Amino acid sequence: RHVAEGLQYLASLHIVHADLKPENILVRADKSLVVADLGRSIVATTPQATNGIRGSLFYASPEILRHTGITPVADVFSLGLILFEWAAGELPHTRPWEDWSLSASELVEVLKARVGTNNWLPILPAPYTADFTQLVQGMLKAVCAQRLTAAQVLATSLITESRGAAFDVPIGLTGDDAITARQAVAERTAHMGQIATLARNSLALDKELKASRVLVADLGQQLEKQRSNANIAGEELTEAKKSAAHAKAGESRALEEARLAHASVAQLQASFTETIRQLKGPTSVSPAADGSVSITAKEVRQIEDIHATNAFRLNRVGGELAQVADENHRLRME
């Protein structure tokens, strides 16, 4: 009744909901029903043709499926399907249904062949009363002109007589069937409370899970950063080891060059002494007690030339030794 009242109000404004389905019928705290989600609704003062399917296909009226014009009674057809599904447990045009993997265009063609064709007259299973079955069938007429309007639905005796009844009084059932249905409604209500609690707990767990995922992502980034720093440190350590190896090799080369330089100096000194002997001759006078040797001016010039040459060599060796020392120092610093 509440949904029919909502549809009657929309019809008075020439508005077609065009997407009425169980998901768009909400229950308030006082157990009244409201129609929600008018995102696909249209204004239609006359039968309104559309270029595409509006709303959910399984609850669409024949005129919506065939693009023959939408009027407010399209919503009454959808409400009739919802009542049939509530009473029978399934929609009348999904028995039997074999392929749930159809594309939207394929599904439209299948529904066109099933909804409102071939003496379309959905029959509710026992034990529903004839009045209730007649009401649902009147809402599911394939021809718009023959279909009940929302106002006519509200005017039926089944609705008017139950207007003051409680929410849990079954409509369309009598006697023991009504008692059984009322018990089933009570059990379902209790189950719905449990489901609501589980849903709230699930939402809380989802929030915690999202927070945990964010935390894990942050920790992952920190770990990746630490790994990157560790890789950089490892590379620096490798370079340091290479530099130390180069420094050690440089030190060995420097020591070897220093040894060679000392050997060169000793050799030069020996050569200098031999030069003096050659200048003085093998029968030269022995050195004086203080170690001095008397030589002529010519011999002095010759010795000076030899000394200059040797000094040049010594300077060159000294420069090479200085370069080796600098390189050794640099390698040690690295």
Written description of the protein model:
- This protein is mainly alpha-helical and 334 residues long.
- The protein folds into two domains: 2-169, Transferase(Phosphotransferase), domain 1; 211-333.
- 62% of the residues lie in helices and 3% in strands.
- It is built from nine helices and four strands.
- The strands form two sheets. The protein has a two-stranded antiparallel ribbon with strand order 1-4. Strands 2-3 form a two-stranded antiparallel ribbon.
- Helix 1 runs antiparallel to helix 3, helix 3 (73-88) packs across helix 5 and helix 8 packs antiparallel against helix 9.
- It is rod-shaped and about 155 Å long.
- Residues 164-169 have low confidence and may be disordered.
Question: Main beta sheet, described?
Answer: 2 strands, antiparallel
What's the CATH H-level superfamily name of the largest domain? Transferase(Phosphotransferase) domain 1
SSE-based structural type? mainly alpha
Put simply, the count of helices is 9
Question: What integer value in Å does the Rg equal?
Answer: 53 Å
How many domains is the backbone divided into? 2
The overall strand count is 4
Q: In CATH terms, what is the fold-level topology of the largest domain?
A: Transferase(Phosphotransferase), domain 1
Quote the average pLDDT: 79
In CATH, the architecture of the largest domain is Orthogonal Bundle
Q: How much strand content do the residues show?
A: under 5%
Helix content: 55-70%
Unreliable spans are 164-169
End-to-end CA span: 89 Å
One letter per element, helices H and strands E, the order comes to HEEEEHHHHHHHH
Strand order of the largest sheet: 1-4
CATH C-level label of the largest domain: Mainly Alpha
Shape: rod-shaped
